[in-house]
Write a structure and sequence with these properties.
This protein is an alpha/beta fold. The chain has 2 domains: about 300 residues, Zn peptidases (Aminopeptidase); about 150 residues, Alpha-Beta Plaits (2-Layer Sandwich). It has 16 helices and 21 strands. The protein has a 6-stranded mixed beta sheet. A 4-stranded mixed beta sheet has the order 17-10-9-19. Strands 13-15-11-16 form a 4-stranded antiparallel beta sheet. A hairpin with a 3-residue loop joins strand 1 and strand 2. Helix 1 crosses helix 9, helix 2 crosses helix 5 and helix 13 runs antiparallel to helix 15. The longest helix has 27 residues. It is globular. The protein binds zinc ion. The site of zinc ion has 5 residues, from helix 5.
């Protein structure tokens, strides 16, 4: 009798549990109706546009220390080529050179009471390793157009975006478009070096003028073509936040001496122990916004097993985290990461060094701070013979999470869907650093998205060998920026013929 009763109770509880999980899963998997009208694509001459991008790729705007003559020549050539390639845009926009080589454009709108928006791109590119030159199928600075692609360093990161934005402005000016809201374009020359000079100068100038931005748009996340596990089909990811960063130097001190009489603790030994402690005591993992929102938005296109797990995080959270921890990229989305990058100490085999030094790079998850990371390191090492200090680029806390219910986010999402009707749009967390964190003080929201279709094969091309962009994708870049600009700065077209085509985009109210 007792056994029968217990079995019935277990069955009842199980039934309730399964029903609850099922309901959650069904609710979680509901697609939101976006009802975005597709619009007539703007007329562009992609052959000429591709040529103009290739011209910019040919200029070796490699990030080097500021004021070097090499940089000076390349960046001034870049300025001139941009001006010559986009004459209509240059006739309408004001241009300033700030922080030596960075560019700030302003396309004034008719309504100064509306908060302006700002698009970010960088002119600089990372260098090409000499030893890899022979592995490039086209010279990295040739700007070759071949096999349906534009080839070269910076095509993806991020001259296609820079040129795509200018193509869009050129196109809109050509149509007689007159903006209501002011648009800024900020093209820095030192993003790959941290943006501490060029970007910082732009931000300082805007701040001094009291400019408050509605939102900024920068690189950070792409259109994923199979990069998100459990999802088939393209996903446009909009980065709502980015992790912070701090680099710490650990220095172990010792008296030194001859290696024939080593003490029980040496500088090298202390440092090794400290690094071991840090590696063994990782920061705790958390599933939190905006990663949780990413999963919620992707649920309708995820396979059932993923959907069940993600819809019921009250029981599956630990399992999801352990799955994410299995890959470096997944792990980076759930915790502050610890990466030892430099280790030094000792000169000769028979001398005990007095100093041994290591550098550890931390990428800080939202919820942690530069100060809390430093505290964790000191507490974990727990060794007064080791000093800890901040080195490298200025440390930064994680950014705030931009508002995904804001008009700006919804407008961005709408613009993406107008050009890419078959993608699913979802917010996400940027695990690297972009220029946009410099603007956080003066921007209401910051979004990080490039309309770049990126598959597993393309990932290694960024900062790697055979960087390239498909011409068809570049055409999508231009269409996207035309839609985004007209949607966000709203304006008037003189050319009667074009009004109909553009109206559905311009009608959108901010
Ligand atoms: Zn970049």
């Amino acid at each position: 009798m007792a056994l029968k009763f217990t079995m019935q109770a277990i069955c009842a509880v199980l039934f309730i549990l399964i029903s609850f999980i099922t309901i959650n899963t069904i609710r979680f998997g509901k697609a939101t109706n976006t009802s975005v009208k597709s619009v007539v694509a703007a007329k562009i001459d992609i052959t000429a546009s591709a040529r103009r991008l290739a011209d910019l790729v040919q200029i070796k705007t490699i990030s080097v220390s500021p004021k070097s003559p090499v940089a000076e020549n390349a960046f001034f050539e870049m300025h001139d080529t941009i001006a010559k390639s986009f004459p209509l845009a240059h006739a309408k926009m004001e241009r300033e050179i700030l922080g030596d080589f960075s560019l700030l454009y302003r396309w004034p709108g008719s309504r100064p009471d509306l908060k302006p928006i700002l698009f970010i791109a960088h002119m600089d590119v990372v260098p090409v390793e000499q030893s890899t030159l022979s592995q490039w199928s086209h010279d990295p600075f040739s700007g070759s157009i071949d096999d349906g692609f534009i080839w070269g360093r910076g095509t993806l990161d991020m001259k296609a975006s820079l040129a795509g934005i200018l193509e869009a402005v050129e196109n809109l000016v050509g149509q007689g478009f007159e903006p209501t809201r002011t648009l800024y374009l900020a093209f820095s020359h030192d993003e790959e070096l941290g943006g501490t000079h060029g970007t910082a100068s732009i931000v300082k100038a805007l701040k001094n003028r009291g400019v408050k931005l509605l939102f900024t748009l920068d690189e950070g996340m792409p259109i994923s073509m199979g990069l998100v596990p459990g999802v088939s089909g393209p996903v446009a990811l909009i980065g709502l936040a980015e992790k912070g960063r701090v680099t710490l130097e650990l220095t172990a001190h010792d008296k030194g001496g001859h290696s024939s009489m080593p003490p029980s603790k040496t500088a090298v030994g202390k440092l090794s122990r400290a690094l071991n402690q840090l590696t063994a005591n990782q920061f705790p993992a958390r599933l939190q916004s905006p990663t949780t929102e990413m999963f919620a938005n992707l649920a309708p296109i995820m396979s059932l097993d993923y959907r069940i797990a993600l819809a019921n995080t009250w029981i599956s959270q630990a399992m999801i985290i352990s799955q994410l921890e299995k890959t470096p990229a997944g792990n980076a989305t759930v915790r502050t990461t610890t990466a030892p990058t430099i280790i030094q100490g000792g000169l000769k085999p028979n001398i005990l060094p007095t100093i041994s030094r290591a550098v550890v790079d931390f990428r800080i998850l939202l919820g942690d701070t530069v100060a809390s990371v430093r505290r964790h390191v000191i507490d974990t090492i727990d060794d007064t013979d080791i000093s800890v200090r901040i080195v490298g680029n200025k440390p930064s806390d994680p950014t705030m999470v931009s508002d995904r219910s804001s008009a700006s986010y919804l407008m961005l999402k709408r613009s993406i869907l107008q050009v890419f009707p078959n993608v699913t749009v979802a917010p996400g967390l940027v695990i690297g650093r972009t220029d946009s964190h410099h603007y956080s003080e003066i921007a209401e929201n910051s979004f990080r998205f490039l309309p770049m279709r990126l598959g597993p094969d393309d990932l290694k091309r960024m900062h790697g060998i055979d960087e390239r962009i498909a011409i068809s994708n570049y055409a999508e870049f231009i269409q996207f920026y035309i839609h985004l600009i007209s949607n966000s700065i709203g304006g008037r077209l003189h050319n009667e013929k074009r009004i109909e085509a553009m109206e559905s985009t311009i009608k959108y109210k901010m």
